[in-house]
Amino acid sequence: MTSATLRHSVWILRGNPLTAVAAAGVTLFVLVAIFGPWIVPYDPVASNVSEALQPPSATHIAGTDQLGRDVFSRLIIAARLDLAIAVSAVGISFVIGAVVGAFCGYAGGRLDRAVGRFVDVMMAFPLFVLAMAMVAALGNRIENIVIATAIINLPFYIRFARAEVNVRRNVGWVEAARACGESHFSVVLRFLLPNILPAMAVQISLNLGWAILNAAGLSFIGLGVKPPTPEWGIMVAEGARFISTGRWWLVAFPGLALMMAVLCFNLLGDGMRDILDPRMRT
Predict the structure, then answer these.
(1) What per-residue confidence (pLDDT) applies to 9?
(2) What is the CA radius of gyration of the chain?
(3) How far is 218 from 213, CA to CA, in rounded Å?
(4) Is 52 helix (H, G, I), strand (E, B) or coil?
(5) Count H helices, E strands: the chain?
(6) Distance separating alpha carbons of residues 74 and 230, to the nearest angstrom
């Protein structure tokens, strides 16, 4: 990062404190996911029926669930799993989608039109329903959740890369690269893709939040991670049975964690858009 970019980023953050808060929230989320197993006060899967359904207290700051498991410990460990699923899925869809979209946008012609229509057909389906169908067919294992989430994220990156490369494929510096003997393959990978990556970073941040929500939604309806593995969607689903009896903490804490994670990634994406937008530098 150059000094000019750094100064511009600081200027954006000072003018938009929500972006700074979102960046701090994402950083905290990542740190919790990395160091979670070493900071949890209790075993997240160890049950103690004698302490079941205890409200938040000094001993259990987020209470206990129906099996006496510490809710706070399960929240911390669940952050690692949800973040791992989101990062893996978005990483796969980003790499494949960016490369496919870039080559299609560069080549143009029938291939470009065929891929464009395929993406349009995919986006015509409710993407969460499509993920449900794939996980139901493949089985509700973590790797299948990652695959399904990656597939439903592909259209965003293919469409974005295709449009951006289509605009840039005949600009002067691309023509100069071709005139210097660069192959079409090299022009796409060495010149066009790096040029559009900063703008795609905004989409990555937004999709990370959506991927976390998608994984939790699949778990909530029973098609995601299997119990007793700690996962935010499972915790909300299990706690929903006890809302009518006043055990609010079983839903409130995992629901709040899920909401804050998605909100921070979305706000960070908005802030990155301002930082990377050349019009904001004037």
Answers:
(1) 62
(2) 22
(3) 9
(4) coil
(5) 11, 0
(6) 5
